[in-house]
Amino acid sequence: MHAEVIAVGTEMLLGEITDTNSQVISEGLAQLGIDVYYHSLVGDNEQRMTETITLAASRSDLVVISGGLGPTPDDLTKQVVAKYLHRQLVVDQEALAQITTFFAERHREMTPNNRIQAMYIEGAQSLPNYVGMAVGNYYQNPNGADFLLLPGPPQEMQTMFEQVAKPLLAKNYAGQQVLTSRLLRFYGIGEANLVTKLADLIDQQVNPTIAPYAKDNEVTLRLTASGSDEMTDQKLLDELETKIRARVGEYLYGYGEKNSLPAVVVQELTERGLTVSAAESLTGGGFQTAVTAIPGASNVFPGGFVTYAAEQKEAMLKIDEEVVEQYGVVSEQTAIAMAEHTRQIVGTDYAVSFTGAAGPDFLEGHPAGTVWLGLAGRDIQTQAKLYHFSYDRQHVRNSAIMAGFGLLQEALTTENFKH
Q1: What's the domain count of the chain?
Q2: Are 246 and 269 within one domain?
């Protein structure tokens, strides 16, 4: 079985907002074993919507549409689909009562157009909206493609899709192949190098499949297996991951969409009862911001420093001015001193330091992108590592921040830094 996902909204065509719904829908359909062959985006125009829906229905078994279910004149999805199906719109009395109560409790006037949100296509199943007003629609068409209509606001769409629509689709389309995905996250290796090391696995892929994606300062691999049940899929994924780990396992740091490198590092520190502090120059507090953005960071991060000017490295971190004068700000010695003094002052298990030239100009004769990172710890020998990042100033800063997490993660998981 295959489907097409349509996003409705002129604001997306104008670039005012991004269509995130289609990705969520496609991932959910894949989990049900329903292949998505096409994505479409159409504005709030009856003629163009009709053309898009007609084409989708001619080549797909299921058409999923998000957006256009609201009360305004440009919300046309239900009307257009109903007209295409030669059906009327009818009122979901329970939904209408909820909408009426909503306005009454807030002492607000309910205008006639709000009634549209409680309407659904005759012969369809009305889908409740737990976080909004517009009901969804699920129409099983005996003479063609089925239709699933979902609201446009992402929170409304995702709640309805996950809690109502997916269980309904799973029941009605039982027997489809089960698709199971696993996302592997890598740091410290580029996409080209990763793909080269896995070239034969990628070239020979059938089931599971391997899809590499290059992201900012990291690479991910999405492994997808297709089988009769999830247990079979997981076994196939385990076998493939074992082969991948044998070649590039040292770069694998985590799994899933939400397990970013900062989140993985904070979790590792938390589980081991360890703490970290930082002294930042060119990154201007970016590393500490990334740490504190993770829930539970207060357990591992008591504080740190932003010492942008050379004199503040001396004043705040108590670094001997002769170190900076002799070796310069952009140096191994300064990075080591920053890390060591920070750990001693704050009293943490680890401390990371950042110093270098973010650009666009040279600093102390060093080109933009020259960065030294220092790492100090209770049971490791303090040392610094030199990096050469490229592109613009912000990319250099972001790359340095990620490298800081990479350095700390390596210290937490390997013996490289032990005496």
Answers
A1: 3
A2: no
Question: Backbone dihedral region of 361: left (phi > 0), alpha (psi from -120 to 50 degrees) or beta?
Answer: beta
Instruction: Write the CATH number for 336.
Output: 3.90.950.20
Residue holding tokens 């420093």? 305
One domain for residues 310 and 405: yes
Answer yes or no: are the C-beta atoms of 2 and 150 closer than 8 Å.
no
Distance CA 23, CA 28 (A): 9
- Nearest CA to 49 out of 13, 8, 14, 86 is that of 8
pLDDT digits (tens, 9 = 90+) for 208-254: 999 999 888 899 999 999 888 889 999 999 999 999 999 999 999 99
Q: What is the pLDDT of residues 380-416, one digit of tens each?
A: 999 999 999 988 999 999 999 999 999 999 999 875 4
Question: The whole model's pTM is what?
Answer: 0.72
One domain for residues 161 and 236: no
For the beta carbon of residue 126, count every other beta carbon within 10 angstroms.
19
How would you classify the pairing of strands 119-121 and 276-280? unpaired
